[in-house]
Design goal:
The chain has helices at 19-29, 34-51, 61-72, 111-123, 128-149, 155-165, 181-184, 203-209. By secondary structure, the protein is an all-alpha fold. It has 2 domains: 9-100, no CATH class; 102-184, no CATH class.
């Protein structure tokens, strides 16, 4: 199994939002259906809003979130944004630090972001968007568990942890796909075998040259 080091990861445009938000943005880019891509982007905006409660005191709160989404996506996210896509030069200034909620984390291997995502999902109305976000959460939880603990884990354990963190308010609906380990983690890259060094150990060759083995 390969190890996932920060120095080997893709650089984040706004690291204050965390690695999971960056991964979700990268995932949205791969969604082929435009309507589904728009729906996923709106769901992510809600999560980003929960991560930035201090921005609610500023004017045009949602506009700022959509601008941040464009920056995290490197202006490559083809969606129907309610606001014009900002110019990259707008972000030359250093972004303000995101203030994180204080307090203990129930499971260190899941982290604070997962807990915030679960809180956001709980507040959503029942429907496709909530089911979509719940699916993203449970698969990210499984990936985080495996990456942190370096061991296999059953889907029942992940579902149980999600129910605990959501205080029983989130449920996995029938038909939701929980990915296999090989789908969550990149394949192990094996180093190519190098050529053997030293004198070739061929008996017939050695006899012709007058060498002998003892």
């Amino acid at each position: 199994m390969t190890y996932d080091y920060n120095t080997q990861r893709k650089r984040m445009a706004l690291p204050e939002y965390g690695r999971n938000v960056q991964k979700m943005v990268d995932h949205i880019k791969t969604i082929g259906n435009r309507d589904e891509r728009n729906r996923a982007a709106k769901t992510l905006i809600q999560i980003m809003g929960n991560l930035n409660p201090h921005l609610r005191d500023e004017g045009d709160f949602r506009h700022k979130l959509w601008d941040h989404l464009a920056l995290i996506a490197n202006f490559e996210l083809d969606i129907d944004s309610p606001y014009p896509v900002p110019e990259p030069t707008k972000f030359i200034e250093k972004p303000k630090q995101v203030l994180y909620r204080q307090g203990g984390i129930t499971f260190l291997h899941y982290g604070r972001i997962i807990e915030l995502m679960i809180d956001a999902a709980i507040e959503m109305k029942e429907g496709d968007e909530k089911e979509y976000l719940t699916t993203l959460i449970v698969n990210q939880m499984k990936k985080s568990y495996i990456t942190w603990n370096r061991s296999q884990v059953s889907d029942e354990v992940i579902i149980g942890d999600m129910k605990l963190l959501s205080r029983g308010k989130l449920k996995i609906t029938e038909g939701v796909k929980i990915l296999e380990v090989k789908e969550l983690l990149p394949p192990v890259k094996r180093k190519p075998m190098g050529k053997p060094h030293g004198r070739p150990q061929n008996k017939q060759f050695n006899k012709k040259k007058g060498y002998s083995h003892h």
